[in-house]
Amino acid sequence: MISAAPSALDSDAVRATVAGLKAWICSGACQSLSGAFVAWVDLVSGRLAFDYAEITGYALTYLAHQGSLAAELTVGRRAADWLVARLRRGALAARDGWDGDAVYLFDLGMIATGLLSFGRRTRTERYIDAGRSLVDLIGDELGAGQPAALARSGPRSARSSWSTRGTAHLTKLAQPFLLCGRTEPAAALVENALSLQRSDGRFPTSEDEATTMLHPHMYAAEGLWVWGAAHGDEDAVEHARAALGWAWSYQLESGGLPRAVTRGRVDGPEQCDLTAQAVRLSLAMGWRSPAVERGIRRLVEVARERRGKLALPYQPESPEQHLNTWATLFGAQALELAAQARPALAWAELV
């Protein structure tokens, strides 16, 4: 059931937060000298974290779908040029010098979506070509057998987590495949997700059946929605809705969502990226429940100001206040929908 719209005061606060988040993203405040978007910015010192290729891809998708490109064009071209230069020298790792340079297929997919989206918006063939090449590479890797998170042809990872062993999150790779008109590999990822999803809507996110990390769980839901929205597949959308319902059932008293759920219990701190993902997907599907309203209020409440702009912290209760780039990107889209600054979210626009 869709609840009543927020009050005028709440709407004003949401709109102001949207403007502040957009300003932080589009000003380059979270962009390094290289042109890359960084993982986070320290609230107090302003120190930038590492250059993050995946998040730079997300930023390009966000920038590509702004109403007009002014300062955003310069920021976006610097980001896209950094990614293309990196790809041309064969740097496919999540970030330089980390995890033995293992290649994460999910990251490549989000980079591809960003390059394709921004390239098409700006009619820049080198960005489009780089995005298509990445989609081809991902398709070759996934076509080699059962879905795997890491490129089989690349270095091995020393890590054991949802991002190295899970496959539910790969469902979001349906988006770059569909942007290239490649239906078959996207459909295969959706089928894999449906085979994994439990009757209560939960996605196992690693080999440990006891714990579900909400970040990859939400990526799986997003991928199902992308497929469903692109193909009019109501069954896929309903499975995405079931995943959302399961996640919202663990909403914290604050209104946010926790990092994980283990054996039916909240596990770990509140994270803004998860709350933003859940709010955004709910609103994209026209679901504005009381839980969603609480999530919207929480995002507005925890947004942090720095130099006249706003960003979302990674973990709002952490003593280290890191203004997180992907949480802010997700949150900006979520609150744009909440403020009705955009009438709807198309599957190709999802960051």
Polypeptide structure, described:
With 351 residues, this protein is mainly α. The chain is 52% helix and 8% strand. The protein has a 3-stranded antiparallel sheet. A hairpin with a 2-residue loop joins β5 and β6. It is globular and about 50 Å long.
Low-pLDDT stretches are 1-9
Reported for the largest beta sheet, the result is: 3 strands, antiparallel
Cross-sheet strand order for the largest sheet: 2-3-4
Strand share of the residues? 5-15%
Proportion of residues in helical segments:
40-55%
Distance between the first and last residues' Cα: 26 Å
Helices and strands, in N-to-C order? HEHHHHHHHEHHEEHHEEEH
User: What Rg is obtained from the alpha carbons, in whole angstroms?
Assistant: 19 Å
Number of strands: 7
Number of helices: 13
Question: Secondary-structure map with pairings?
Answer:
Layout: H1 8-26, E1 40-42, H2 53-64, H3 71-88, H4 105-122, H5 125-142, H6 162-165, H7 174-179, H8 183-196, E2 211-213, H9 214-231, H10 234-248, E3 257-262, E4 265-271, H11 272-284, H12 290-302, E5 304-306, E6 309-311, E7 322-324, H13 325-338
Antiparallel strand pairs: 1-7, 2-3, 3-4, 5-6
